[in-house]
Write a structure and sequence with these properties.
Helix content: 40-55%
CATH topology of one domain: Rossmann fold
CATH architecture of one domain: 3-Layer(aba) Sandwich
Number of helices: 9
Strand order of the largest sheet: 3-2-1-4-5-6
CATH superfamily of one domain: NAD(P)-binding Rossmann-like Domain
CATH class of one domain: Alpha Beta
Shape: globular
Largest sheet: 6 strands, parallel
Radius of gyration: 19 Å
Bound molecules: adenosine-5-diphosphoribose
Number of strands: 14
Amino acid sequence: MARKKIALVGAGNIGGELAMLAAKRELGDVVLLDIPAKEGVAKGKALDIMQAGALDGFDAKVTGTSDYKQIKGADVVIVTAGIPRKPGMSRDDLLSINLGIMRSVAQNIKKNAPKALVIVISNPLDAMVYEMKKVTGFPRERVLGMAGALDSARFQCFIAEAAGVSVKAVNTLVLGGHGDTMVPCLSYCTVGGIPVTQLLDKRTLSSIIKRTRFGGGEIVELMGTSAYYAPAAGAISMAESYLKDQKRVIACAAYLEGEYGYKGIYLGVPVKIGAKGLEEVVQVKLSADEKKMLKSSANAVKELIKAGAKL
Ligand code: APR
């Protein structure tokens, strides 16, 4: 059986880490694509990873290119093309620059990888993934945005630290847009199956929620650019669930068709990801408070899409 093919559009910080993870887990052969001016970087990272494979013993062919023909027949395309946030910049400030990039990337994916599952990471995420779906015309099953996996992981980390337990014992769910309006759902947060509200006090939990909301910003302030290890790990978990038909339930940005009361927008919700891509938007009961937060998150996403439509 031929190996699966994973195309990565954008060979920057996240793109490089995506390539490393995909190769290390032997998910398939990897094509790292960037603009012609960065073709050397794409090729260099590809070679570096191949050589790491010789040491680590993984079989995957990794190549770098700026030619979209090389992504032909890709099973999965993960998009990080764009510019990342600089200190003081909000994700929304990125809108106009990254929207133009997304439109051209989407056209190239439509032409060269019409059967692929597309996972968008570029920010502002909810607007970028919306544009990807619009331009490619792919069904919602095959266009997802990576955000909830990352936001849930951040929430998970902070809870594990506060509770003094292994991160593996913690389960979390973060809904809503990938921005400061995200909705960390305490009602679905457990430590070894025990509701977190029974283990941590209200003050600790509310400071964890605050930190999760600004989890991206915290890293931008520290590093001068946005995070890349955890975002890459988030997208790889989605790609793996698709390629191996694992049917994991992962929070991600999905195009809603009435679920949770919303239609025609991308919003972070729990999604069962399997061989068909999005197989189900899992609908969970939300408290009145969570519904209110989800609404303001959806409104922020709608504003972003409206602003994008004018550009
Ligand atoms: N086609 C392909 N690649 C492109 C294009 C394009 N049209 N335009 C820009 N790129 C490339 C850049 O040359 C760069 O190598 O996208 C890459 C982005 O990499 P980084 O600048 O290192 O950014 P990164 O940290 O990987 O984040 C990428 O994901 O989380 C978001 O906010 C983040 O929008 C940003 C994106």
